[in-house]
Write a structure and sequence with these properties.
About 25% of the residues lie in helices and about 35% in strands. The protein is an alpha+beta fold and about 375 residues long. A hairpin with a 4-residue loop joins β13 and β14. α3 packs antiparallel against α4. The N terminus is likely disordered.
């Protein structure tokens, strides 16, 4: 049986050493039509790209920190009612819970006492101001009375602020100052409009100050926390596109983590989704694809996986040129589902080998080694 000369190195590929030393620039490989057919060579035109779409990676949907609020008990007491539930929409300032708080009575009494002291101090100041103008009292006496009035004003402001922090609104404060009627019932409001994500408080339980009752989030924009292998982070930067193919959504990268997680040796890449965020749910897991910008300094191309071969740790693609086939060194930028994105210098209008690469590689090694 006559075996074509070019096929001999292919048949003996198992005995070729894998480490053949530094690869030097070899002469183009000239093949006849018969040799091309024997190798099963097939070529195609280069497909230039400026963006590589990576493999699907697990991503968790979360709510941006700025869009989250935890509604807590401003005072200790009995949680009488929770007026909303998980999934309900709320508006800013809406009453979401009622607390019966005995300590609230003390704050109101202190406020009313401070209000009474201020009224008395103002009256004393008006009296001493008139006596000072008439020359009956000294200026020192007048200044002392004025200082007492200013101190009473500051004390009232302090107690007023404590009531505001306790959950009292401006209207409730005005009513308290006017009617002098104490109440142990406290309305808890939400500072943020959005959706109730969690209910942590149960009606009927005794709670301390700062005990979480509800967690509320705005869901008009959401984060994707993408757990990315370390070697896939190269080239990913803020502003890069992110795709969620199963839902047809698109976002953009806002941060690339600097810490490698010990559990999976991955890096956290965070992206934001604005349009179509209503299709996502906080806590949901989806598959996301990072889009890496490429071809900036060196041209980039999308090639079939079979077109790329490796030798001595380097990647190559065979380019068909006018003088023959040339092994062109490339850098793999991204691994897509059915293809690879590589960067490399190719002559204009050249084609690449996409089938028969292994046979051609064996012949190329034979020529390089001078076998």
């Amino acid at each position: 049986m006559n075996v074509p000369g070019p096929l001999l190195p292919f048949l003996s590929a198992l005995v070729l050493a894998t480490a053949v030393g530094p690869l030097a620039a070899a002469e183009p490989l000239e093949l006849s039509d018969a040799e091309r057919a024997a190798f099963g060579l097939r070529t195609q035109a280069l497909d230039p790209v400026t963006e590589a779409i990576g493999n699907r990676l697990p991503a968790r949907v979360t709510v941006p920190n700025r869009q989250l609020r935890v509604v807590s008990a401003p005072q200790p007491g009995l949680l009488e009612q929770v007026l909303v539930a998980e999934g309900d929409r709320v508006e800013p300032g809406q009453v979401v819970a009622l607390i019966r708080s005995p300590s609230l009575l003390d704050l109101q009494r202190e406020f009313l006492a401070a209000q009474a002291r201020l009224d008395l101090a103002r009256e004393s100041l008006r009296r001493d101001e008139q006596l000072f103008e008439d020359g009956i009292i000294s200026e020192r006496r007048y200044q002392t009375t004025r200082a007492e009035m200013l101190e009473a004003e500051a004390t009232l402001k302090q107690h007023r602020q404590r009531l505001l922090l306790a959950g009292f609104g401006e209207a409730a404060l005005a009513e308290l100052a006017q009617r002098d009627q104490l109440s142990s019932s406290l309305e808890v409001t939400t500072p943020l409009g959005g959706v109730v994500l969690d209910q942590m408080g149960t009606p009927g339980e005794l709670i301390d100050a700062a005990t979480p009752i509800l967690r509320i989030g705005q869901l008009d924009r959401l984060w994707l926390e993408i757990h990315t292998p370390l070697d896939s982070v190269v080239g990913v930067a803020a502003g890069a596109r992110v795709q969620v193919p199963e839902l047809g959504l698109e976002g953009r990268v806002i941060t690339v983590g600097r810490q490698v997680h010990g559990q999976d040796q991955g890096v956290l890449v965070r992206a934001v989704v604005e349009e179509g965020a209503d299709l996502l749910r906080p806590g949901q897991f989806v598959e996301a694809q990072l889009c890496v910008t490429c071809g900036v300094e060196v041209p980039a191309f999308r090639v079939p996986r079979a077109a790329v071969f490796r030798e001595n740790g380097e990647a190559f693609v065979f380019s068909e040129q006018a003088t023959g086939f040339v092994a062109v060194p490339v850098r793999v930028v991204a691994e897509e589902i059915d293809s690879l994105v590589v960067e490399g210098e190719f002559p204009e209008d050249s084609a690449i080998v996409v089938s028969g690469t292994i046979s051609l590689k064996a012949y190329w090694l034979q020529q390089h080694e001078g076998l």
